[in-house]
Amino acid sequence: MAVSTVSAQNINIGTKIGLNSYTFDNDSGQGFDSNLGLHAGLLGHIHLKRQFGLQPEIVYSMQGAASGNTNLNLDYINIPVMLQYMFDNGFRIQAGPQIGLLVRAKAVNNSTTIDIKDDFKSIDAGLSFGASYVHTPTDFGIDLRYNLGLSDISESSSIKSTSRGFQIGIFYLFNHSD
Fold it and tell me: What domains does the chain contain, in order, with CATH numbers?
């Protein structure tokens, strides 16, 4: 029975790339500006029912924040799993959990770069919300997403910091089928 269920589902593989705008929110009252970066990765799109889909992804994401003349550049491998409601016209709304694995963390001020990976936790858990549109004749689409960090990413016991940001990107689904 499980084999017939899996074979009845439409499964697509795709790629995605886009722009990030991330910042930090913390309980110290320190304000941070947005830090711009890129994201790129792979996605799977699984049709569960006619209107519902599941989209797991693995994405390299350049995140962080800016404070004065210093950019805090945090690079993650993010693994979101998005539940999607698919409208008949190509539009989708989506939400789901995301786990981020910290790969690199650098503070950059003018020509000085310092490794700050030890100042941040290796895992960032959060929720993602968004919308997308796929143009089925071309298999291309656009994705807009807000990622809300829920876990404290700071190794400092005195300051709780969370990450949050917007993403806009394009994706391509190989041999897309509805």
Answer: 11-174 (2.40.160.20)
